[in-house]
Amino acid sequence: MMRFKEEKEAKKEAFRKYLESSGVLDSLTKVLVALYEQNDKPSSALEFIQQKLGGPSVSDYEKLQAEKSDLQIKYNELFAKHQETLRELEGVKSLHSRNSSKDDDEREVIEDEHTALVAPPHR
């Protein structure tokens, strides 16, 4: 049982050192001191902390979410239009291919008729 407590304390100490060496403890301390020193305490301490740490405010976050939603709708509309245009293009290609095949067949018939008319008769 004693060994378990020692391991747990060692993990806590390692984590504390990690937070300290990465600057997290210093940043959190500065933010909490700034909050403490506010004469007029903000209505949302969490939002205050988020702003001080560089995160967006709740209202900014909500605006960004709305903008993201609008952009997703626009993307979906443009993608659907793109897919429709691709289908139209395939239709045009297919029509062109069929017409080209007909033209080739007609050209061969005309060439054969021309050859028959121009060629001297076999004796």
Automatic annotation (TrEMBL):
Q: Region Disordered: start and end of each range?
A: 91-123
For this protein, the record's InterPro entries field holds: AMY1
Its primary localisation, in coarse terms, equals nucleus
Where does it live in the cell? Nucleus
Q: Does the keyword Magnesium apply?
A: no
**Alphabetical keyword list:** Nucleus
Q: What family classification does the UniProt entry report for this protein?
A: Belongs to the AMY1 family.
**What's the protein here called?**
c-Myc-binding protein
